[in-house]
Amino acid sequence: MTMTTPAGEPASPVIFARAIAADGMTRHMAWGEVIGWRPSLPGDLLWVHLDRNAPGVGEWLRNDLGLSGATIDAITSNQNRPRAFRDGNALATILRGVNSSDDGDADDLVALQIWANESHVVTLRRRRLEAPKDVLAEIEAGAGNITVGDLVTRLVERTVSHIGDVIIDMNDRIDQLEERCRGTRVDDVLTAISDIRRKCLSLKRHMSPQHDALIQIARNAPDWLSADNREAIRETIDQLHHYLEDIDVTKESALVLQDDLNNRAAAETNKTSYLLSIVAAIFLPLGFLTGVLGMNVGGMPGLTDPHAFWATCGFMAALAITQLVIFRRLRWL
Predict the structure, then answer these.
(1) How far apart are the C-alpha atoms of 239 and 253, rounded to whole Å?
(2) Which residues pair with 90 in a beta bridge?
């Protein structure tokens, strides 16, 4: 496999573009070469990865590829709920993938729009996503003959497969939190659990329609998706279904751990309140006694008796001990 890179490529909306021959050879394409490209031999294809918000993208899609306004709006809009639809013999797909790049949150979901026909594969994104780079690296490493159907299938598989890594990481974090919760502040653990639950909800919100979108591809596949491609799509659908089940299990595990921690915190609070109530019950009659004896009125007993103070202290101690014995017998302590 060979690849040539022209020097002095001008600035363009292209993140990368490759012309892929039927024998698997790839050639780097500049934006000027992308415009007006047509296959010279059967099996040749062009893969263009674009920044969908860059100037000139909509015009190229309309003028060069002949896309309708509705299709262009669907694959360039920032309203990117996962879905898939046929556009003649072309396929438009909007997916969500995990942003596993170094400059983003590993759990962040990024949109990837794909449009493909018999000779072109156009992928569009606004923020960085690893799946197209992974597929490009496979092709340039010598993947052999590749068709449009193979390329679209690999993009779908890679986009979905990264989601499993996030789910596994969340499950590992829950296991770690279960180990840490005995020696860590409950508030810190609850904050981490809430973060996991929010991520589960975010994944479920986008993965459910993505599952439906892949089912739509399998049911209404274009002619250029081979039987092997359709089987691979069905395997990806099954994998995504398992991921959705894992998300539910992760969310339930987080909820169970959160409830357990809340119950433990409530039990500790009740225990502390109970002990404070016992202490208040012990000191309530003692406080009443000292309040009565502290009244500055005539006729108070023991004012002239030098032993009255110690007698009062002894009586109060005996009263406290009596209360403790009573509470003990009533099993309040």
Answers:
(1) 21
(2) 87
Q: What's the CA gap between 131 and 238, in Å, rounded? A: 19
Phi, psi of 226 (to 5 degrees): -75, 170
User: Under 8 Å CB-to-CB from 286, ≥6 apart: which residues?
Assistant: 316, 319, 320
Task: Name every residue whose Cβ is closer than 8 Å to that of residue 258 and which is 6 or more positions away in sequence.
Answer: 190, 193, 194, 197
Tokens of 26: 């790839």
Report which of residues 62 and 164 the model is more confident about: 62
pLDDT digits (tens, 9 = 90+) for 153-173: 999 999 998 888 888 888 888
Cα gap 274→281, rounded to integer Å = 10
> Mean per-residue pLDDT for 310-314?
87
Better pLDDT: 310 or 6: 310
Q: Which pLDDT score is estimated for 100? A: 57
Instruction: Specify the residue for token string 């990024």.
Output: 110
| C-alpha Rg value of the chain to the nearest Å | 35
